[in-house]
Amino acid sequence: MSYEGSGESSGTIVTAGSVETVPIRLSTARFVATGSLTDGRFGLFRWDMQPKAGGPGPHFHRTFAESFFILSGTVRLYDGRAWADGYEGDFFHVPDGGIHAFRNDARAPASMLILFAPAPAREAYFAEIAEIAASGRTLAPEEWTELYARHDQVMVDG
Fold it and tell me: What CATH number labels 20-155?
């Protein structure tokens, strides 16, 4: 891009009421900024968890990094070696290929921002997981493997 003079008027305001919200079991994903909004540079989601919401098992992504900023509550964070508690204001960065996980095991709600960079269409993954959870469908192991492969989610033991 070429910018002449004093720049250009090209900002986008996303109001809270316009953010797509997807409930997933005991959590809610809010797609604050998707890659389609940021020209693929990053995705920013808010992840709100009810008490004892749990979370995904250890996994990694081949094509994007992920960062977590704790807004409230206590979030258990896994860095591929050990679990640790994350509290309001704590930040956790995972480069692409880095094994990680998160969960809410506390008896209180927790909330965090998740940043994906560069931005995959991560909202498609969460929407698909939400649909499976809401429908009560049970996937066979090979169906989970295929779903994860389509969304660059490599599950590992941990």
Answer: 2.60.120.10
Peptide bond into 118 cis (omega under 30): yes
Residue spans of alpha helices (H) in 63-138: 122-135
Pairwise CA distance, residues 30 & 98, whole Å: 24
Q: From CA 123, how far away is CA 23, in angstroms rounded?
A: 12
Question: Is 0.85 topped by the overall pTM?
Answer: yes
In contact, 48 and 22? CB cutoff 8 Å: no
Domain spans, the chain:
20-155
Structure-block tokens of residue 54: 């749990």
> What pLDDT score does 2 carry?
61
Averaged pLDDT in 10-residue chunks for the chain of 158 residues: 75 94 96 95 98 97 98 98 98 98 98 96 94 94 95 92
The amino acid sitting at 156 is: V
